[in-house]
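Hey team,

Filing this mostly as a record. A colleague (T.K.) asked me to run one chain through the structure pipeline before their review meeting, and I want the input and output archived in the tracker in case anyone asks later how it was produced. No errors, nothing strange. Just documentation.

Input sequence:
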Amino acid sequence: MKIRVLIADDEPLARERIRRFLETDPDIEIRGECGNGLETVAAIEEIRPDLVFLDIQMPELDGFGVIHTVGVERMPAIIFITAYDQYAVKAFETHALDYLLKPFTRERFQQSLDWAKETLAKGLPQNLNQRLMEMLREFQPAPRYLERIIVKSAGRIQLIKSDDADWFQAAGNYIEIHVGSQTHMIRETMNHLETRLDPARFQRIHRCTMVNLDRIQEIHTYFNNEYVVILKDGTRLNMSRKYKDKLNDVFN
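Output structure:
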C-alpha cells in the first residue's frame, strides 16, 4: 500500500521541489498540497494522510498552530520543514523528530523520506505524541484548550473562535455550532469536543447539547423536574437532570 503524502508549504517553489523529489518514488502517493495553515488543517482532517511535510512558517496558522488545532493525538507522521536556526534544529534532533532545513539537497530529502518509510513500516512509536508535545513546548506554549474551530463548507474554510460559539448541538455524526444567527457544521463527536473546550467556559446541559456559560441568561425549573436554559438571545435549550448539579457547581 502506498504512503499517502500531504505537502504543506506557503512557498510554491518549495512545494514544487518536494513534489518533484516524491514523484519518482513508487511507494508514494501525493494526495494534496497546501499553502497555508488553515488549508493544511482541513486537508489533514479530510485526506487523513500517512505523512505530512509541514512547513513551520505559514500564513493564517503556522505549523505549530496546525498541530494544536488538529490535536497531537490525531496528527500523522511529520517531516518538519524549517528555516529556523541551529538552536531550533537541535530541538528536533533531541526529540527524534525529523526535519528538513531549507535549502535542503535531494540527498538530505531522501534521508528524511527513508526515515519516514521505516517509521511507518514499524508503526508510529507510542511515545511519538509525547516527543512532539515536548518539542512544541520549547517553541510556544500549547493552549490547554481549543481556541479555534475549523469549519469547512462548500469549498470554503472558516476559522471560528471557540468563545464566539453560543451553543453546540449534536446531529448524528456531526455537531452544529450556533454563532449568533449562523449555524455551522463540523464532523465531530460531542464527547471529544467536550474534552477540547475549557470547562470553565463550556458545559454540557444535555447528552446532545453544550452551551457557552457566558450566554446563559437564566435557568427555569418546572414542576415535573424538567429544566430549561434560556440564553441571552432568547434561545431555549432543554437541560437534563443528569447535568443540573454539575452546572450548579459552576455557578456556585
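Quick notes for T.K.: The radius of gyration is 22 Å. The chain has two domains: 3-139, 160-251.
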